[in-house]
Design the sequence.
């Protein structure tokens, strides 16, 4: 057998028995092989949890609106977060916007007892979720301490009055039951202020139960020819140790003139309405009041022995009259007066047509039903002009309404403010939609051109038909046929607004906002200095992405766009708190391409820089620039849009309205 054959036979024998034998060298080889396989395979790093940050909250008074601010929460990996606020301790409250980084709630009213009112503690939790299956959520809690607000008690010792000598010698009541407090009055004290040297010789005053809500006194005197006035002081203390005092004067005399009752004027109301009856117009000295019903379906009078009382009118199917009598009295006698309350059936509206219309037009709205009051009025919330009456009856009414503000608005149907108390006569909320088919402004170009003269030719130009200035609102304005609500260049239609959002005439010299009557948008007007200064510029930031910068206060200076929007809304510019950044299209619609340096109507938008770049809310639409870049409009030769990085500083003009 050769050496090769022997070697092959040995190899075959190893294969049939054990081809691989363990040794320290073979274990090292296995470990190296496993390490290589591990490094070669792709691996995944678990996503980090979001970082939840909540602003601390100083103690707040009950009944105040509290802000839960988690806007500094962020995701380490830059993922978009979802939010959930929940209450975990304290009396239940309603959280507004619980799925936003900033939420609010109203601090609860703390229950008052006969002991001192103590603060209550609330606690809220914010959970942020980045959508990852494993390390998706993180949460943090914030405590809120609610402090009680104590309104001092109001002492009421009753009305000044006169009594006879006979009544005074038998006993006169002192009544503090009309005193009020938001908690409980726990202490009463009556005191005679009239000194002995002010009384007739030999006169005596005996005060009983001076530390009770109801006290009494007896007054006797050997000399009764001259009236005597006794002054008493009432002192009250509530459960939170606040105090108040009041005085009452009781005149003791021989001859007392009875009072003259006055129950007030007659009323006309709708069934189910609250009614107040007042005898305050009664004259003379009055020791007591008594109200009673003398005709009509019976009702429950709330305070029959007070100067002012009330009740709720009953349900009726036809016009019904209720009559009430007021009796006022003193020691000298009494008098009475009556008042009538006419109750009309509840109006039932069966149809309202139409419930939509077109911006810039007058629509006739018809209301049909039964028991409609002849005093009915109709209005559409958000419109600058009231609806006018065409005709009214108990079954149908028609109104003409001019539609000048786009949107979905509440339709208000009620009786007028002098009859029926101005109560609504429509159940629930009915909406009226003002559609905007004219939502785009024209370009502002009013001149034509030819091959030799690029601009400033009167239209039309022979050989060059169909130019921009020959069509649309601009052409109508040049022809004098365009009807506007307000004023402005070419086809633009603007209305100046004051700082409460009320319309001003075009001749106004001071205004804070401008309404675009074509698009329905309302625009901020810049100032020469201060918070809204024309010189302020801002980095682009939306609360999540962009460049926040180092200056976030926006107090009379520039900052980032997010902070600027917040502070303008906090100040309630033009009576509103829904101001926002305009998108790039809204800025382009706003531009007047017939002007330059700047391309806006400066008679309505003064303090606009001549060569200004204005940020929009639109981010750059094409990756990878969507996170780091945003769109702007350059108001120089018309509106020119572009994009740049968010750490650049540009001007901002805020807008509100239709989006």
Sequence:
């Amino acid at each position: 057998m050769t050496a090769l054959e022997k070697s092959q036979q040995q190899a075959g024998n190893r294969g049939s028995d054990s081809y691989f034998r363990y040794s320290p060298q073979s274990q090292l080889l296995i470990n190296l092989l496993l390490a290589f396989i591990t490094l070669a395979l792709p691996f995944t790093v678990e996503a980090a949890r979001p970082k939840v940050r909540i602003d601390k909250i100083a103690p707040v008074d009950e009944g105040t609106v509290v802000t839960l601010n988690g806007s500094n929460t962020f995701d380490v990996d830059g993922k978009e977060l979802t939010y959930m606020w929940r209450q975990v301790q304290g009396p239940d409250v309603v959280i507004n916007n619980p799925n936003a980084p900033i939420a609010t709630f109203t601090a609860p009213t703390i229950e008052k007892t006969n002991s001192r009112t103590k603060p209550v503690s609330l606690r809220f939790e914010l959970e942020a979720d980045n959508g990852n299956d494993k390390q998706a959520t993180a949460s943090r809690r914030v405590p809120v301490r609610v402090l009680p607000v104590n309104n001092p008690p109001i002492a009421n010792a009753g009305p000044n009055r006169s009594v006879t000598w006979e009544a005074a010698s038998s006993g006169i009541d002192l009544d503090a039951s009309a005193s009020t407090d938001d908690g409980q009055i726990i202490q009463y004290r009556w005191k005679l202020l009239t000194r002995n040297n002010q009384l007739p010789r030999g006169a005596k005053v005996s005060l009983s139960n001076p530390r009770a809500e109801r006290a009494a006194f007896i007054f006797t005197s050997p000399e009764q020819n001259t009236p005597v006035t006794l002054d008493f002081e009432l002192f009250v203390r509530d459960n939170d140790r606040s105090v108040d005092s009041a005085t009452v004067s009781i005149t003791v005399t021989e001859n007392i003139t009875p009072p003259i009752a006055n129950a007030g004027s007659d009323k006309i109301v709708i069934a189910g309405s609250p009614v107040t009856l007042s005898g305050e117009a009664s004259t003379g000295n009055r020791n007591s009041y008594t109200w009673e019903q003398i005709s009509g379906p019976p009702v429950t009078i709330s305070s029959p022995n007070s100067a002012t009382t009330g009740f709720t009118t009953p349900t009726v199917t036809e016009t019904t009259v209720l009559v009430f009598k007021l009796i006022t009295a003193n020691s000298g006698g009494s008098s009475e007066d009556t008042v009538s309350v006419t109750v009309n059936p509840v109006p039932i509206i069966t149809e309202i047509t139409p419930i939509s219309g077109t911006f810039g037009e007058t629509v006739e709205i018809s209301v049909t039903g039964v028991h409609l009051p002849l005093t009915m009025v109709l209005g559409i919330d958000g419109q600058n002009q009231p609806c006018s009456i065409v005709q009214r009856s108990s079954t149908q009414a028609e109104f003409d309404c001019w539609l000048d503000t786009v949107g979905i608005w509440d339709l208000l149907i009620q009786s007028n403010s002098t009859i029926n108390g101005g109560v609504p006569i429509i159940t629930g909320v009915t909406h009226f939609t003002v559609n905007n088919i004219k939502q785009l402004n024209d370009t502002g170009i009013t001149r034509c051109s030819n091959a030799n003269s690029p601009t400033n030719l009167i239209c039309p130009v022979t050989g060059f038909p169909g130019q921009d200035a020959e069509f649309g609102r601009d052409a109508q304005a040049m022809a004098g046929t365009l009807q506007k609500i307000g004023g402005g260049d070419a086809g633009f239609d603007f209305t100046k607004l004051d700082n409460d959002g009320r319309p001003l005439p075009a001749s106004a010299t001071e205004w804070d906002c401008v309404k675009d009557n074509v698009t329905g948008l309302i625009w901020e007007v810049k100032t020469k200095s201060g918070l809204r200064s024309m010189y302020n510029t801002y980095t682009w930031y939306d609360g999540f992405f962009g460049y926040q910068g180092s200056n976030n206060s926006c107090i009379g200076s520039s900052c980032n766009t997010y902070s600027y929007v917040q502070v303008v809304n906090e100040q309630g510019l033009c009576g509103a708190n829904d101001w926002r950044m305009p998108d790039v299209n809204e800025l382009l619609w706003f531009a007047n391409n017939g002007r330059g340096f700047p391309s806006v109507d400066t008679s309505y938008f003064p303090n606009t820089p001549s060569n200004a770049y204005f940020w929009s809310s639109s981010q750059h639409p094409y990756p990878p620039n969507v996170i780091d870049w945003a769109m702007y409009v350059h108001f120089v030769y018309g509106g020119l849009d572009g994009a740049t990085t968010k750490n650049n500083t540009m001007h901002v003009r805020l807008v509100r309205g239709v989006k």
